[in-house]
Amino acid sequence: MRVSNSNSILEVKDLSIGYKSKREVTIIASNINFQLEKGQLIGLVGANGIGKSTLLRTLIKIQPPLNGEIRLNGNPLQDTSSIALAQQLSIVLTEQLVSKNLTVYDLIALGRYPYTNWIGKLQPNDIDTIDKAIDMVKINELKHRKCYELSDGQLQKVMIARALAQDTDIIILDEPTTHLDMYHKAYILKLLQRLTKETQKTILFSSHEIELAIQLCDEMIVMQKNEVVHDQPCNLISDEVFEALFPNDLISFDKSTGSFRVTK
Ligand SMILES: Nc1ncnc2c1ncn2[C@@H]1O[C@H](COP(=O)(O)OP(=O)(O)OP(=O)(O)O)[C@@H](O)[C@H]1O
């Protein structure tokens, strides 16, 4: 694959994703092509069951691609060791397998595991990175609390701080706005937008908050039945990509406001 742009963090070429069992291969999406660059906020959207989580799982190397190439910082993902992967890519999943008995600080400190020795002893630069992550997400007042004491919105911020402490080029989040109210959905996505600008990290998230993603993202990946499209939100609107996302018997997309309306 061509490494055409030194700012390119993640490149996907002719990718097919899906599931293989002994008896059959189920292709969820194919011919996926995109290139994500440094400092961008990218929203991955599409209808329920279209394959967003499958795509993210493939990008984070939990699931093998059926076909095609994924390159992280120019190197094939399949050849990237677990430790090298953890130094370049961090993950925030919806259903986190965190021990909620940990304090917020200790949970965020776990983000440093790719850099600490086998005892996991934090060095001064680790502590500095953890403190910066806590400051950036503005959760200083939470740091001595136990994770089980947190609301969903607070826990989401803590998980984002943990990913920042991991100090990777790209952070990938699967539905970070699930369980949040309207205000906190906007808050979390706005926080991600600010972090891309302040840190120049690339942040890719999946979401059903299409209208917020249109307003906040630099680029979006839209999964449709027969095609996966990647472009800036304004181009996706003028190409009428959002009109084709859902059956139009119930909702339609209003180009002028960038929002969906219930058909009367
Ligand atoms: N382990 C699996 N084996 C086989 N098929 C699977 C598996 N996991 C998911 N699928 C199927 O893959 C398709 C895509 O699912 P996926 O969870 O990726 O969609 P999604 O866009 O993330 O959905 P949602 O928005 O509802 O979370 C669905 O048809 C689903 O049934």
Automatic annotation (TrEMBL):
Keywords: ATP-binding, Nucleotide-binding, Transport
Entry keyword Lipid biosynthesis: no
Domain of life: Bacteria
Entry's Gene Ontology molecular function annotations: ATP binding
InterPro entries: AAA+_ATPase (IPR003593), ABC_transporter-like_ATP-bd (IPR003439), Metal_Ion_Import_ABC (IPR050153), P-loop_NTPase (IPR027417)
Record domain ABC transporter: where: 10-250
CDD domains xrefs: ABC_Iron-Siderophores_B12_Hemin
Cross-referenced PANTHER family: IRON ABC TRANSPORTER, ATP-BINDING PROTEIN, METAL TRANSPORT SYSTEM ATP-BINDING PROTEIN TM_0124-RELATED
Protein name, per record: ABC transporter ATP-binding protein
Source species taxonomy: Bacteria, Pseudomonadati, Bacteroidota, Flavobacteriia, Flavobacteriales
